[in-house]
Amino acid sequence: MDSFLRRLKYYGFGFGIGLLFVVFFFQNRGCSWLPANRVKNSILERILVVPDAEMSALKAKGISKNDLIQVLNDGDVDFQQSAKKGNPQVYKLLKEFNGKELSFYFTLPEESFISEIHFSEASARKVKNSKEGLGTIIRFPADKDLVIVDEGKKLTCLQESMGLINPKIILKCFVKSGKIDFAKSDLRAKPKAIQTVIFKDPSGRTAEATAIWYKNKINITAFNVSFANDCEGYSTQNVDK
């Protein structure tokens, strides 16, 4: 019995040392079960979007897109000053820049594939889902198959007209030129929030994609273009989600 207790003490001591290394030396990056990291991982599973209205405030403070991503890497989640209920949930993250601690607000709208980053609001409870203007996309989840498209003759026709029959090409266009159109999105729609992405096709023509978040994928349910008249004779046959 004494031998067992001795081994148990050694195990507990070693486990404690290892935990200290993870928490203090590796900045919790390996502890997905910690509350702060669960929040950060939930945000990183989505597309990070900065409303254009927030860009000027960020630029005035010298905050770049890379700085915003770094906030998620090693910023501190302030749970007491976050809005953990409602739609959207809003989490306040703190990070020091140029000797001053700054506050950033990350949204988690229900059933949505985006997370907005706000900076100019005074508190998490004042942050709402954007309903006008555009949003600049600064980061996509690391998933080469992030985009899927519903079935239907009209959707296939529109994809062919834009040279986007492969969803991977659509994702590349989103990464290169995509913006969220808040005015044409509805983040309170049921059963899924609806987002509209404006982008340039491979020929440089402007197009719109209406999409929902389905099993951690950007599921395109419709395209809106002004240059594919040959597709108007088809009806959109969406797969029921």
Question: Can you walk me through this structure?
Answer:
The chain is of the alpha+beta class. The chain has two domains: 104 residues, YaeB-like fold, CATH 3.30.2310.40; 92 residues. It is 31% helix and 29% strand. The chain is built from six helices and eleven strands. Strands 2-3-4-5-1-6-8-9-10-11-7 form an eleven-stranded mixed β-sheet, sandwiched between helices. The longest helix has 24 residues. The N and C termini lie far apart (58 Å).
Average of pLDDT: 87
| Largest sheet descriptor | 11 strands, mixed
Spatial strand sequence of the major β-sheet: 2-3-4-5-1-6-8-9-10-11-7
Q: Strand tally, please?
A: 11
CATH class of the largest domain: Alpha Beta
Order of helices and strands: HHEHHEEEEEEHHEEEE
What's the end-to-end separation, in Å? 58 Å
What is the beta-strand fraction? 25-35%
Please estimate the helix content.
Answer: 25-40%
Number of helices: 6
Please state the second-level CATH architecture of the largest domain: 2-Layer Sandwich
Structure at a glance:
By secondary structure, the protein is of the alpha+beta class.
Task: Sum up the structure in keywords.
11-stranded mixed β-sheet, disordered C terminus, 11 strands, single chain, YaeB-like fold, 241 residues
Note the topology.
Layout lengths: L1 H24 L9 H10 L2 E5 H9 L4 H10 L1 E8 L5 E9 L2 E9 L5 E5 L15 E6 L7 E3 L3 H10 L4 H11 L1 E3 L13 E6 L5 E9 L2 E8 L17
Parallel strand pairs: 1-5, 7-11
Antiparallel strand pairs: 1-6, 2-3, 3-4, 4-5, 6-8, 8-9, 9-10, 10-11
